[in-house]
Each structure stands twice: as structure tokens, then as C-alpha cells.
Design brief:
Elements: H1 9-18, E1 22-27, E2 30-34, E3 41-44, H2 51-61, H3 65-73
Antiparallel strand pairs: 1-2, 2-3
């Protein structure tokens, strides 16, 4: 199993934009992202996302940890 990296909310949003998600609104410190035929995501604008939350976001977006790390490095 690949270890989840420590990322900020803004870095995570950049990764999800690469796979087709778009920001549809921002309320307080939370961004709402949407992509066709996929679950909408809510990502907080925090300096460090808790690993459990990041795991849930990855599960909802239907990408693996390996794919996320690969996109993070691009």
C-alpha cells in the first residue's frame, strides 16, 4: 500500500482540476468541485489535509493513491 502524502487543500484542488473537476463555488474556507459522472467533492482550504479526509476525497473521486501522487508530481 502506498503512503498518502501530506498536501494542502490548494495542491489537492490543482490535482483534481487536472482530471476534469471544476470549482463551482466557494463558501467560507471550503471549495466545491464538480465533474461529470462523478461524485462532487468538497475540499477545505487548509494548510494540511488530514489523511482520513484525503483518503475519503480520493475514494469519492474514484482515483487511486498512486494516480494522485503521479498527478501531484506533474
Amino acid at each position: 500500500m502506498v503512503k498518502l502524502p501530506s498536501v494542502s487543500g490548494k495542491k489537492a484542488i490543482k490535482v483534481f482540476k487536472k482530471i476534469g473537476y471544476q470549482i463551482i463555488r466557494k463558501r467560507g474556507s471550503h471549495f466545491r468541485l464538480h465533474c461529470q459522472n462523478k461524485e462532487p467533492l468538497t475540499i477545505p482550504d487548509h494548510k494540511n489535509l488530514v489523511k482520513g479526509l484525503l483518503r475519503k476525497i480520493l475514494r469519492d473521486s474514484e482515483i487511486t493513491t498512486k494516480e494522485f501522487i503521479k498527478l501531484l508530481k506533474k
